[in-house]
Every structure is written in C-alpha cells, then in structure tokens.
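Posting for a labmate who doesn't have an account.
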Amino acid sequence: MKNTAPYLMLLLRVGLFVLFQATIALLFYILGSEAPWVRSEGYWAIAGLLANGVTFLLLVKLFRKEGVRYFDNFRFVRKDWWKDLLIAIGLLILAGPISTFPNIWLAKGLLGSTEASAALFFRPLPLWVIIISFLWPFAQGLVELPTYFAYAMPRIEKQLNNGWIAWALASFFLAFQHAGLPLIFDLNFILWRIGMFLPFAFFIGLCLKIRPRLFPYLMISHALMDLVVVLMIPVKG
C-alpha cells in the first residue's frame, strides 16, 4: 500500500491557509464586522504563521516516524561549505529576475497594474498585528521548502521511480499554495498569485533536486526575503 502522506503534504498548506483565514473571518463576524471575509484577507501573514506552525509539527512527526530528526535534514556540510555559499549566492542572483518579472507582467496583464495587485495584497493593519507578523517569515523559512522538496519530492520520486515527475509536482504545488494566501475570490488575483511564483518554484526545486546540501542556505535566504515582504505592510492609521 502506497504512503499517501507525501501527496497530502502537497495539498496541506493551501488547505491550512484557507482554514485559518476562515477562522479569522469568523472572529471578525463575531465582533460584528460587516465584511468579515474581506477584512480577513489582509491578515494573510497571521493565517500563514498559524499554518506554518501546524506544518512544522506535522513534518516533525512524519520524519520521526522514519527515524529522522527534523533538523538533521538541513545541516550545513562543513566540507567545501564555501562552494555551497557561493553557489547559493549565484542562484539567488539568478532567482531575482525569475521571481520579479512574472510578478510585474502578470500584475499588469491580469489586474491592470502592480499598484492594483499591491493594494489587494498589502492592506493596512494595526501595528500589533504587523509586529506578530514578523514571526511569519522565520516560520516560513523553516517549513515551506522542506515540505515540498525535503519531504514530499524524494518520497514521491521513490514511489513513482521518476524524479522529474516528483520535481514537477512538488514545484507546481509550491506555487499553487499561494492561491490561498490570502484567498480572495477573484480569478485574476488567484492566477496572479500562482503564476508569479511558478517559474521561481520550478527553478528553486531544480536547484534543491540537484544539490540538496543547499537547503540551509536557501531556507535562511527565503526567510530574509519574506521578512522584506512584511516590512511592506502599511500601518493602519
């Protein structure tokens, strides 16, 4: 009997994002908000933080079942560490345009402008919410790439005996999860969220497939890049 956990983990995060956004919307509804779901859309970092917490606990449990400690998957390799660092820096330089240009092109094509996409994504929030949101990028760095490329991809590869299909599935669902963070019921916004990450997801997945020892470098870089995203959230006046 095949282990379905790797496939379920591909879908887990988008489900958790929607679940926790719905929970936030419910709280706003209880508090008397006239548009609880619309208000919840701006709290995506909080929904993401909660989802990351659940993802981390599940990954720890799944790895433990196999006799592996979570952080053993992402140790720095001392031998030739400087080569890994230089490769990681080079890949991040390449990743810049791969992640930036699809964002700009799709925002203009689907939503009219980058300003329109930013207005939907970056909603003014109370300062205390933004402060809590700073935990999100660090939790993101801990679980996002590991979910798809350290846990799901190698196990799907083993089951299918095909590493390229496993890489394609893991990469696609890494991009697809963004449809739920936040979930806004606008098809163009959903397509923008998925499409802007699609080339980057396949690129970073290929890097980790070819050289898994880059995990710690890319996880740290990922957290730092997402930290910049939180800095862009405006404070509600």
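Reply:
Got it, the structure tokens are right above this. The chain has one domain: 5-231.
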